[in-house]
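Course assignment 3, question 2. Fill in each field.
Student: A.L.
Task: Predict the tertiary structure for the chain below.
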Amino acid sequence: METTIPRVAVELLRAFGDVATAPLLGVAEKLSDGLRAMLPHRALVIFTEDCTGRPQKKAGDAGITEAVTIHEMADVRRRLRAGDPVRTAVIAGAERDVRAWEASTGAVLVLCDADSPADAAVDELVETVWETTALHIRQLVGHADPSQPIESRAVSAERVRVTTELTERHATDLESFLAVLRGRAIDDRRARTAVADLVADALVRTKTASDVLLTVSEEQVAGAFRRLRADLRPLTQYGRLDIEFVEPPADGRALPGEVAHAARAIVRSAVLAMNDQDDITRVRVQWDCDGRNLLVNVRDDGRGGVDADAPALHMAQAKAASLGGGAELTRVPGWGSELDVRLPLDPPSPVDVAEWGLAPREDEVLRLLAQGRRNRQIAEALSLSENTVKFHLARVYRKLGVGTRAEAVALAVGAGLA
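Answer field:
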């Protein structure tokens, strides 16, 4: 008997496939393409606190995507958490017909100017796709290229934008207060009531925007550690591994967002590498802060047999290096393995590029490298062969005094070449 699969189900599966294979910066576009057949829309906007550098990911009409603010997205999330289905919202400064969903990760999806009537079945399908997408985003952030943390550190413009939004909102509120107080159309009692209502609304908006700004820019060390525990909970619930967490000081210095994300990713990578040993039963995870660095220690109770060449460990070491820190693995036969990590909390001091003595072509290669280009992409941009690019990179590494791609990217971004 032949089975007919509904077209909407086919589109759903296609959306799953496209999103699951998309890189981090391509998720919004692929998701928009996949959902458009089920729910036509002019623009798609994602707000996620998993990405400290670029908390918004957008696709569609530039008139919307270039003007939407984090404050607007945070307000949509607040309404969703209050049980509001959110069919209209102010997005990009205008009231629009929207559909909105929040995933279990806290990430929010908004489809703007959706031109089809509400359909519970379609909404449920989109919610399913969005939940998977949000988890995919979190996974991509955790396993991003080692240069991702330093890129996030360099993308301060997004934080400036959030601050600007907050400042402009304050100005608008103050102008509204003055307009009411100076107006002659209402008496003093009604004016006081109107201003009180405006102030209450303004305080809510200010608190929401301030919370978003802090989340984008930094995390309290204790809160960041709690998120790490939640990330590792599945290993303890469904596996044989017992993870001991040593809490950091509750009053420690706040962590820049990119440091907190990198630290969690490094610990996850280290724990997974250690868990591959047959004789391991316990891992101890400890965070501390000396005021200038986040200090991370991960130690197992195995026999010192963790694979030093494990890709997960290389990823952890590269992430630490990309932020100007380091990760050192110690293996003691019969006593276990230990990873000590140091992550600076402040960006590195500016570097004088001239001191590197780069040739013009080497400078071009390094700048493209700092933009996240792979060797093949650099070769295409400069009309070179990949072997020639590798030759130039080897000379660049030697002149910079580094041994890895991530270290070169960290220095280049710190010097303003990205």
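Instructor remarks: The radius of gyration is 25 Å. The first helix runs from residue 7 to 20.
Grade: pending
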